[in-house]
Amino acid sequence: MRAHDVEAVTDEMVRTLHGHGDLDWSVPAGDLTWSCRDTAIHVADDLLVYAAQLAGEAETAYLSFDVAVPGDAGPDDILRIVDAGGALLASAVRTAHPGARGWHPDGVADPGGFAAMGVVEVLLHTHDIARGLGVEWSMPDDTCRAVLTRLFPDIPAGPALGSCRTGDAAATLLWATGRGHLEGHEPVRGWRWDSSVRS
Q1: pLDDT at 187
Q2: 68 falls within a domain
Q3: Overall number of domains in the chain
């Protein structure tokens, strides 16, 4: 995945959720225990942290900083932070040298890996927040297919799993991350992606 993928999904999240500040952002985001507000802050934090991990080429742990959002920040204020985080991650991905690597607990990642992690965080949590707020939104199938291929290499690419290459990749991604069901398959209770550099 590339910088423009991060920019595209971040723009889509902001476009989808902007202007809904009159709704109750304290309700849970989908099936999460986090509120919609806290979930949006989590997305902003992830994007900024991933940018820092890659730009700083962190070797063994997360860099030591926190993203703090004032308690009086409204939904649109938080979405501006999400937008900035997406821009910074895209910039880090775009300007990183090909050998750049950064630590993540699910595997040391290259620029494409950090782009994919940022994209999947935005996709999944836009889905969660939209569900919580009752806002209509559908995940883009091509983008879901790309993150499945990069971060979930053990998901079979065949009709048996809704096929991340030939079927409904959005449904497969939701199932793979414990957010949906696929007929004939057990629900996923615990999941992790694999952000390790591909050979």
Answers
A1: 86
A2: yes
A3: 2
Q: Where on the phi/psi map is residue 161: left (φ > 0), alpha (ψ -120 to 50), or beta?
A: alpha
CA 93 vs CA 58, 60, 108, 117, 186: distances in Å: 14, 19, 15, 12, 36
Domain range for residue 90?
Answer: 3-137
Q: Does 143 map to a domain?
A: no
**Number of helical H runs and strand E runs in the chain:** 6, 0
Mean pLDDT rounded to a whole number for the chain: 92
Give this prediction's pTM. Answer: 0.93
Q: Note the pLDDT of residue 156.
A: 61
Please indicate, yes or no, if residue 113 is contained in any of the structural domains. yes
Give the CATH number, domain containing residue 109.
Answer: 1.20.120.450
Average pLDDT over residues 25-49: 98
CA geometry: angle 28, 173, 105, nearest 5 deg = 80
